[in-house]
Specification:
Length: about 325
């Protein structure tokens, strides 16, 4: 009996320190895309992204917030994407409040490859959880068909040139092919345009491809009391493509909302913020953002040019062989 009486407190102490933390609620984080990931294609249509945070019992938590960071796919081994400066960079970073355990937004994924979405959750009682989601976006099938057709065309061009210039110097055909592949690129200039409202301010930093830009909406009030909660709808539209590249709807904002957003190409975008405050007129802010474009780096162009030139040279060789074989027959 004395041995048992001494062992009982020791057992309770070990259970207290080493046992499972039953008093801490575990949080589960789920990601859903609409449409599903297998159907997503780069720069096609905005994707509906939704986070669901539940407790250990599977029920959505009542309140809390999430910090979201979206990173672009890393550069490929051979062919670059349509936006090489975007590869491997931070695309979006924002802080969203949870409503019934959910956070929703729309986003246009710019390039193919594996994206990484990092999520940090803090519930109302201070419970924290983190998770990283990785999902892969495949290239549009039409681009592969276009590349295949273009490759066949280059081979046939080299084949025809090889037969025509069999008695001449083959280098001339190569120079002609290189001239056909040459093209010029233009870099757009940017100028910041800011529109202010009497009750709210929308500010967007000068935007440049490859760098995340600060986007901030702020409610202004002459009252010394606490600012009311506004339900903010914020969208970013690509004017040339007529596509929505980002959007949140009816997001509860207590005075201010800010995020980091990367504009993927050197074009003009329209940022529109519409805020609804109970008992007050709708507040609308709008700003056109010209984005500074950058020429693709040489390292991004060399693999593709090498591939195209190799097709032409291969066609030249096949054409010369065909011509010489026919002449010797």
């Amino acid at each position: 009996m004395p041995l048992i009486s001494h062992a009982t407190p020791v057992f309770l102490i070990l259970f207290w320190f080493l046992g499972p933390p039953l008093w801490a609620e575990e949080l589960n984080i789920y990601l859903k895309t609409t449409p599903r990931v297998a159907l997503l294609r780069p720069f096609a249509d905005p994707v509906g992204m939704s986070l669901l945070v539940t407790g250990a019992d599977g029920r959505p938590i009542n309140q809390g917030h999430v910090d979201i960071r979206l990173d672009a796919p890393k550069p490929g081994r051979f062919f670059s994407t349509d936006f090489p400066f975007v590869e491997g960079t931070r695309l979006n970073e924002m802080h969203l409040g949870l409503r019934q355990g959910r956070a929703n937004w729309n986003y246009l994924l710019p390039i193919r490859g594996e994206y990484r979405l990092a999520v940090d959750v803090v519930s109302l009682d201070g419970t924290m959880a983190s998770k990283v989601f990785a999902f892969n976006i495949r290239e549009n099938e039409r681009k592969w068909f276009t590349l295949g057709g273009f490759s066949v065309g280059l081979f046939l061009l080299g084949f025809a040139a090889g037969r025509i210039f069999t008695q001449a110097r083959s280098a001339a055909a190569v120079f002609i092919a290189v001239a056909l592949l040459s093209e010029s690129a233009e870099v757009s200039t940017a100028q910041e345009i800011i529109k202010l409202s009497h009750t709210a301010v929308l500010e967007v930093e000068p935007a440049k491809v490859g760098t995340a830009t600060s986007v901030q909406w702020r409610l202004e009030s002459e009252s010394t009391h606490e600012k009311p909660t506004a339900f903010l709808t914020l969208t970013i539209n690509h004017l040339e493509k007529s596509k929505i590249v980002f959007g949140v709807e009816k997001l509860p904002v207590a005075g201010e909302f800010s995020m980091k957003f990367q504009f993927p190409d050197g074009a003009e975008y329209r940022v529109v913020a519409i805020a609804n405050i109970p008992g007050a007129p709708t507040i609308r802010n709008e700003q056109v953002v010209p984005v500074i474009g950058i020429e693709p780096p040489v390292t991004a162009m060399v693999p593709a040019l090498s591939y195209f030139l190799a097709l032409i040279v291969l066609g030249l060789g096949a054409g010369r062989w065909s011509k010489l074989r026919k002449s010797s027959a």
